[in-house]
Amino acid sequence: TGPAPAAARARAAAWSAGLALLRGEAADRPDARHQGLRLFAGAGDPAGQARAEWFLAYAGLDAGDTAAADDLLGRALAGFTAIGDEWGLAAVLVTRTKLAHIRGDLATLEADGRRAAALFARIGDRWGEQQATAWLGALAEMTGDQREAARLHTECLRLAEELGLWPEVAGSLAWLGWIALQEGDHERARDLCERGHRLAVEQGSRPLEVFTGMGLGFVARRAGLLEEADAHLRAVLALGGHDQQGEPGEDADEHPAPHLPMVLTELGVVAERRGDAAAALSYLRRALAPAVRLGAPRAQALALEGAAAALLCAGRPGDAARLLGAAGEVRRTAALPVGSAERQDIDRVAALLAEVLGEDGRAACIMAGAALTPAAAEPLLIHPPAAS
Fold this sequence. Notes:
mainly alpha
């Protein structure tokens, strides 16, 4: 027999809200997201409630409320443990890997990813294996092992195609495009991201339209196609409903989407390459605040590194070097290596700073900047600088 009417209504409400989130809808409607959970009160359905808690966390992570996801996953974990649901435990673990990736928590990303992969393999759930493999591939990319990242995401693509999981195919293509970008193969990166983007649009998956659109924007910028990059990145912002011209604070959501800091950073880099230091710093200030709010060290470092280039463009080499020092300390603390494509941007700025400040002057400013937290460095991103 099926669940009792009250439990059935609760399941339907929670899963309907979760499916809307997966489509990129209702991200700003917490009442809709949690109505189903409230309906579980007294419904006598602990298994249904735990799965609903997990699914709402899984579906809602792209909306940016990481604290809510943490809470839901903790409750789901307790529920699955109480009823001995091994699949549920694996599902919670694989979802926690995404949170760990956002936060640059490499130890949790690896531990939860490997444990989830082992559990799903034992159960024989190939969807779960595909999910766990994807986040282990993300771990490899984040730690600089591009060969292993490509191997794992190629395996994800194969699994997703075999299972007919077309949104996951789009995601795997975008990951492979990102890896090709890191390796400097712009043509392959563009092809993969374009294929992924077409599929994401066909599938009506707004989160994957965002992911693949980001890839297209990043590829265009690396290839020097600034107008094209700007168009792709602005389209990504529009998909998320973010203001594109406001000053920091005007679109500073309490729960920023995880992609927002990197998109704003890349728009700042585009503006800097055009020689518009003021616009670049505006974008980069808007990028740094949500990166700090999300606790995302990679996004923080990228925003600071982009701002260093913008400050150099603005004729403030000392402040630029200080931001490089602050970014380096963020990476050091989080044990995040610099990707090869990121290294090109940093080396360009560092070489110009050495010409302007001299080797010793650059080193002294970088050392001073290492003492700045990202939040403490934010005032340096004002242009023109505030009067002292």
